[in-house]
Amino acid sequence: MLRQASALRPPAPQSTNLDMRLRLSDPSLVPDLLEYLESVPDVVADVVSDNEVEVSLMGSYALDAMRMELALRIRAWQAARGSQESVVELVDDVRS
After folding, report:
1. Are the CB atoms for 88 and 78 separated by under 8 Å?
2. Nearby residues of 33 by Cβ (< 8 Å), 6 or more positions away
3. Per-domain residue ranges for the chain?
4. pLDDT in tens, 13-71
5. pTM of the complete model beyond 0.85
């Protein structure tokens, strides 16, 4: 008896939306931040408004670990720019 390949595969896990939204105090810095974030293959980032970027980190992260990882990457970006003038805020509710 032959089975279809889909019958042999376990069901796909339910996807969860773990996107995080960043709001920048200076919209002119969005392209620079986007370039920095997308310079590594485990980040998907999209501009969602003139001063906001939605970010997903690929991998097996718990939400709190993902938030910490993103915070560290933002601090590294700010340090590389040599300035702390820009404020980057993690927006808690990305669906609003």
Report:
1. yes
2. 22, 24, 53, 74, 77, 88
3. 18-91
4. 333 456 899 999 999 999 999 999 999 999 999 999 999 999 999 988 888 898 999 99
5. no
Q: Is 87 helix (H, G, I), strand (E, B) or coil?
A: coil
Structure tokens at 94: 């990305």
Question: Which of these CATH numbers, 3.30.70.3270, 3.40.50.11540, 3.30.70.260, 3.30.70.870, describes 18-91?
Answer: 3.30.70.870
- As given in the structure block, the two tokens for residue 53 are 């970027």
Could you give phi then psi for residue 23, rounded to 5 degrees?
-115, 125
Comparing CA positions, the residue from 20, 22, 26 lying closest to residue 84 is: 26
| Dihedral, CA of residue 28, residue 31, residue 40 and residue 22, to nearest 10 | 50
